[in-house]
Structures are given as structure tokens and as C-alpha cells.
Amino acid sequence: xxxxxxxxxxxxxxxxxxxxxxxxxxxxxxxxxxxxxxxxxxxxxxxxxxxxxxxxxxxxxxxxxxxxxxxxxxxxxxxxxxxxxxxxxxxxxxxxxxxxxxxxxxxxxxxxxxxxxxxxxxxxxxxxxxxxxxxxxxxxxxxxxxxxxxxxxxxxxxxxxxxxxxxxxxxxxxxxxxxxxxxxxxxxxxxxxx
Length: 194
Prior knowledge:
It comes from Fictibacillus arsenicus. The protein is mainly α. The chain is 80% helix and 0% strand. Helix 7 (131-143) packs antiparallel against helix 9. The longest helix has 47 residues, at 33-79.
């Protein structure tokens, strides 16, 4: 079975958009048809994954986000390096003070970002099959948001030099990346069982 027919078969399996192979094959024969089949397959795969995985992303994203927050909170309490305060800081957003300085909203906004992050890593690793590697790359890049976030923060949680805060920030995000990659690999094994 060639790649396009295999994709057509998978489209048939997951969605009524292609009722049979004839539709997919006739679509392939049109100009740009093969690209349309690939795009349709990708869209269906994302829709199927999103529908089935939203609760998993929310669960694992919440656990990972809470553990990262706990790690930074322990550092903040033990060493007075305000990494937790920095992690949940949203004072640069154009929102009323009662929202910006609400501990609950700050924490929830952090968890929402974590859930989105685990969803992106899950979708990418479904295609490239390296959840921990993809997670480490993305989180390494994200850890460097430390510097622009510090610049736009209204309340500065610490002052230069940044060597120790950034090193701890980077280590926390690296551990977080491995944890998310591990959770995504669990999701992939769960998917293979069904």
C-alpha cells in the first residue's frame, strides 16, 4: 500500500470526511490533490488527538506545572530567590490590579500555559516520535524567556547579577521538560494500546 493510500485508509478510519478510498483517490488525482489529502489527514489527526487527549493534557499539564511551581516555591522559601513569584508573574498584562495580583489567577495562568505546552509537544512528537527530545528543545528555548520577561515585569523579583537565578530557572525548566516528555511518552503508549 503506498503512502497516500495508507493515509487515505487512516482518514477513513478516523473521520466521515472521506467515506471511502475512491473519494481520497479521486482527490489525489486532482491538481494539488496529494497535498490536500496530506493536509486533510493532518487536520483529522489533530482533531482526533485534541478530542481524545484534552483531559489527558489537562491532567498531566496540571501535574507538571504544579511540580515546577513547587520546585521554584521551595527555592524561593529556602534561598529567598523569588523564582516562583517570577514564574507566575503577570503584572505586565494590561489587566486590572485585582486580576493581576490574584494568586489564584496567576497560578491558573501558569497551568494554562503548561497544558498548551504539553499539547504542542504531544502533537509534534506524534509526528517526530521523540517526546523527551522535543520537550527539552522547546523548554530550553522557553527558559531564555527569562530575560525578556524580566525586562517587561513591572515588579522586579530579583536584581542583577542573574547567574544564580537564571541557572536555577534553567535547571527547573530542564527537569520540567523531562517530566513533560515522560508524560507524553505515557500518552503515546496509551494510544498504542487502543
